[in-house]
Amino acid sequence: MFLKDAFAISPQKTFNSTFEEGDFVVHESKTFKVIDADYAEFIPPSLLRRMGKAVKMGIGAALPLMKRNAKTDGIIIGTANGGLENCINFLNQIVDYNEGMLTPTHFVQSTPNALAGQLALMYDNPGYNVTHVNGSLSFENALVDAELFFSEQENPSSLIVGAVEEISDYNYNIDLQAGRYKKEQLSNQDLLNSSTDGSVCGEGASMFIVASSPEDAYAEICAVEQLTYPSEHELSERIASLLAKNELNVEDVDALVLGKSGDGRYDGWYDHVTQLFPNAEFTYYKNFVGEYRTSSAFGLYLASELVRNKLVNHPELMGNISKQPKTVLLYNQFDGVRHGLILLKRLV
Amino acid sequence: MTKVFVTGLGAISSIGTNLEEQRHALQNGISGIGKAQHFESNYKETLLFGEVKLSDDDLSRLTDSSTEKEYTRTTLLALYAFNQAIENANLSSDQISLQSTAFISGSTVGGMCYTDELYADANMKGEASNFVQSYEGSDHLLRIVKRHQIKGFTDTINTACSSSANAFYLGARLIQSGKADRVIVGGADSLAKYTVNGFNSLMILSDEACQPFDLNRKGLTLGEGAAYAVLEAEHVCSDKYKYAELTGFGNANDAFHPSTTSDDARGPVLAMERALKKSNLPATEIDYINAHGTGTQNNDFTETVALKKVFEKVPPFNSTKSYTGHTLAASGALEAVFSLLSMVNNELYPSLRCSTPNEEFNTPPIVTYQQAELKNVLSNSFGFGGNCTSLIFSKCF
Question: Which residues in chain B are contacts of A137 at CB distance < 8 A?
Fold first, then answer.
């Protein structure tokens, strides 16, 4: 499966590529919110008014790709929670108005498949259309689905694959009570140096054009793997088998892109993976976007920029990346429970 | 291409807690729709539901989960049907924990089924509830993964009412591509104020039991349930009983409107055509269709248009939602189970409450119990967001 294009709406200025030019947005509040594009430029006002943030961000990230690429054969989205703001707004109305007559807008906008459906509608795309909601593996699942889709097709084909997650006060409250966020306030520059419990809540939409053939592509997604409730040993074994299947040695991986989040309880997983690759350079991405369940899609965005030789010299790029990498392994985990691996290889 | 067989089934719905009970209800036209006994809502008195006749406590006891305070009703229903399916397929715990065994489940309500607790937790009213870690759409799946020590590929799908049909679709391709040998596929949804109020706000709930394909149909009836199937690759089930081969699957988007289907039925037509193409079967070989048949004006009209476009002579069809109500993400899997019960027993179940078929369509559903040789059956699932999926099962004995 080949990567042809990428676009992100994120807490950095990725929407107009100033991030790639070295710009860095410092976030110091309890959540790292996206820097929005001007959605009114490409979404009709009547539609825009009704759209929730997740749908807006998702369209904001997907439409530029749709404009500059040939029509795809389908749309696959990963999102752990979809349009939560709308969802809980509707829920609040149910309780506050004691199940009275409610308006359906929040309900229709809240369903996690609203984005994929809306993209199909705006883009008049009756092709393959699926939304994966498998928590922090939703994006990895979307990629596997794409791979399976291509394996079925007789002709060269392409898909838009992406992920979205939005911050709402409600999911912030729920995850805060579940112990996922830090009690102290930290800037994103300090996040990954922290080792207290929890991380900081981020959000974003990252979209990709993936294709079955390497024509016009700049990278290959060679493997996507997942583990749930693994031991460290099982993770090591899976990485070894992933390399073997792709006829790679440990030394062939020249960069790691890691989902380290500043959560002292689980960051040991990243140290463990780093130790498996003593010669690889490495970097992180949650200093740019914070922690959210489909943040690995931003990880792939960052890795894809690195293999295109952008961002390598970004002043805030952490770790020790010194050159445009050829073979990148991405690793992310959430709660220490769900673990995802993506292997990316530069083509040119 | 590796063949994909169904070797185990498990289902729980308002018409029964095992395959025998549910088949008995279907054979005898006994609907499960009625007044809710367990679901708490202001609409309890005015609306009817296809409620599973077990309380949360019953389900906890029957799944040996009484100490699991974080399990929601969705999780309990899912676990109950999952256990039944793996037992029916005779899967050992070692086989379930193989890396080549995958698990894919669909859900829409997921962990959000306890609206009042979610309200309190989301608005930080008081102490966090037992369910503060249970609200994710994939929560039921993750708890079953932990419980059964599943080590292979897992996925949760939400394409609204076609979610679990897409679980079958993805599972079949995992096997055909060699990424898995066994996949447990299906879905679960419990009744929730969230969906009841949502569908009510769209004014598509009937105040009587739903009447799919009836001229005077007034809308859908919500139900709940869970259903799972064990799919196995040819090479790991050669000596086992096989319900059927999963030969066709098609997915399309109607790309028309967020919550209604198009008059020209583009999505439903494409989903069925793609499934037929995949199965290499001409439309004339389909012997029975389990329709999506929600009982809304919009769905039943569009689906009939689609059936007439795809099939020169529309095969016998029914809507088993007339028994269970619309079980949302569980419906694709539940109706796959019912389609397979029809096929292996060579019988057609009557669609209920279609007393005045739409003459204009001239294609009424079957309304009486019939015996018929069924070789290939098709099951439709269409959802909000334009998500349409069709599955085809073929007899293998």
Answer: 154-155
